[in-house]
Design goal:
The protein has 341 residues and is α+β, with helices and mostly antiparallel strands. 25% of the residues lie in helices and 23% in strands. The chain has a single domain, classed as Deoxyribonuclease I, Chain A (4-Layer Sandwich). Strands 3-4-2-1-15-14 form a 6-stranded mixed β-sheet, with helices on one face.
Amino acid sequence: MRIATYNVEWFNALFDDDGALLDDGEWSARYDITRRDQLAALGIVFNALDADAILIVEAPDQNKHRSTVAALEHFAAAMGIRARRAALGFANDTQQEIALLYDPEQLSCVHDPKGQETGKKGSSDAPRFDGVFRIDLDIDATEDLVVFSKPPIELAITPRDGVPFRLIGAHLKSKAPHGARGRDEAIRMSIANRRKQQAQAVWLRQRIDQHLGADEPVIVLGDLNDGPGLDEYEHLFGRSTVEIILGQEGDHRLYDPHARQALTRRLGARYSSARFYLSQEKRYMQALLDYIMISPHLRGKKPRWRIWHPFDDPSCWQVPELRDALIMASDHFPVTLDIEL
């Protein structure tokens, strides 16, 4: 089975309110790329992935006028993708949903959120991801109330032939200090936002521990927007959100080889899954943001990871059509896991 995670930049802007593709020569939300060209590039990438299940980070919007499922299923049909059925978790108001495209002939998929519904009062014991998490963020003996702007998706996956498992897709993000007046306020806002992101990681890790305690195989994947060396405030917290989600050494620790290398090698060659243009510096920055973490149950299933980075993966580089499509489609590159379930 092949499982993928892919952050598709501005996917929502490629569909109308009926979920139909805007396959025209107008500009997409990606810089200097038309909607037709971005859609064509995405079709090439998704077909090259040929995955049984693809977590879409920044999937098309879900609201009273638009349907994430309709948009993704129209896209899959138009592009001839075998992962043609879509599943959505809790909708959010960011126009960046978290959804799954999957092949219904290879697996069944059910949105199956865990945890209690909290209302506004919250809970400190891994509440449902659309609820409120109570945690003392700044060690002032007062609990803070934390919510997900993008609630993780929780799915019960049953392969046609294989072991059922839990899949949790996440998009954690520390907001930029928008609206800050001056450097000091920007620093305070940045630290507060990073602290909130870490609280979300603690919340997610609590849910992982519940599944592992029940001896359930788990795959956690998505864009975690954090890792060693990504910003100047990490030294204030001791651990990155990636380290929190992976867990401590022992039977309940998750594994991702790219994360492991990043955490053990501070200097030298490093993996990357995203590429951003820095306009002020007139150069590109690369970062490892996208992960597929597996529980110890799955380590013996011959897992093989791959980052589809066109400049780092020879198989991508040697196919010009795929290489160009990966660059045009998004500022992130897909990550895949091949595993014998």
